[in-house]
Design a protein that fits this description.
Length: about 300
């Protein structure tokens, strides 16, 4: 993310960046300046990198499908006409599926509108695929589900199966900085590169993109009726094996059920299944890409049992 941030400013000659509330882009100073998911991630680290403006990310569950276009158009129709001249914006950073913001997939129309805005104003569109990339959603990149092509893609985590590696991918004409403008002491580590190449080979050779899509669809079909069936479940959403189950105290007010979410995760842990929270009240489901339908069923059965217990 630091590389993408520096590159966007260098290539464009512009200073300002747009990011989204709920986003998590990292904890180093530049990436942290883009992050807006939890106050404890930013507390006592100011001043952060200047020139970052945060705007709302679509919340279709609470505000409906119309929120997708509304959030994107706010940038052009309000922000650019009041406080942020578009010719001074270098890039828009977006997660095609928000990781720490509640496992929220970006609606297709939202991403398409961002692409239109960027094209119109000469702004770079940066896709943070650190959590959602390398097959996690059933495609190499989550943004592929929307048909939108970004200018820069950031990837890490799953790309090297646990070895430390991150990549900033873009066109040669965008990465036009002179040698020495950006570097990393351990960048291009041969062992990590070998691990990444092996990972990509396994994903292709074993058909893990197809498996991720099939098992993910199977899991979402099993959970599709949970908002009606379970007292705590407000929404089930996701792509591939990147699924979020949002818990609420009340189906009408959609008040976030944070303590209940934590209790469900704890109960599942006691039964041998690991889940993790995402955002204030969502359970993230992100099993390995090799997960079978039978294994997924075991996890879903345990989660359903824990939801029933926590909802009593």
């Amino acid at each position: 993310i630091e590389c993408a941030l520096k590159l966007a400013r260098y290539h464009s000659g512009r200073q300002n960046i747009i990011a989204f509330f709920g986003a998590f882009h990292g904890r180093t100073m530049g990436a942290l300046s883009l992050t807006a998911s939890k106050p404890q991630q930013r507390r006592r680290f100011a001043p952060l990198v200047p020139g970052v403006t945060h705007v709302a990310y679509p919340d279709v569950y609470r505000k409906g499908e119309q929120d997708a276009l509304a959030c994107a158009r706010y940038i052009e129709e309000k922000l650019f006409k009041t406080t942020l001249p578009p010719e001074e914006v270098a890039a828009i950073f977006v997660e095609p599926v928000q990781g720490e913001g509640g496992y929220v997939p970006a609606p297709t129309v939202f991403m398409q509108e961002l692409r239109r805005i960027c094209d119109r104003h000469g702004i770079l569109l940066v896709a943070d695929e650190v959590q959602s990339g390398i097959g996690r959603t059933g495609k190499w990149w989550a943004i592929q589900h929307t048909g939108v092509q970004p200018d820069i893609v950031c990837m890490a985590k799953g790309i090297a199966s646990g070895m430390p590696l991150s990549v900033t991918l873009t066109k040669a004409e965008i990465m036009d900085w002179v040698p020495g403008s950006h570097a990393s002491t351990f960048g291009g580590n041969p062992v990590c590169i070998a691990s990444a190449l092996a990972t990509l080979d396994v994903i292709e050779r074993e058909g893990l993109l197809g498996n991720t899509e099939a098992v993910g669809n199977h899991m979402q079909r099993r959970m599709a009726d949970w908002p009606k069936k379970h007292k705590l479940v407000g929404d089930v959403r996701g792509r591939g094996l990147m699924i979020g189950v949002e818990l609420v105290k009340n189906k009408e007010t959609k008040e976030q059920a944070s303590a209940e979410r934590d209790r469900v995760v704890e109960l599942a842990f006691e039964r041998g299944v690991l889940f993790l929270g995402s955002g204030p009240n969502t359970i993230r489901i992100a099993p390995p890409l090799i997960t079978t339908k039978d294994q997924a069923d075991i996890a879903i059965d345990v989660l359903e049992e824990c939801l029933e217990m926590a909802g009593k």
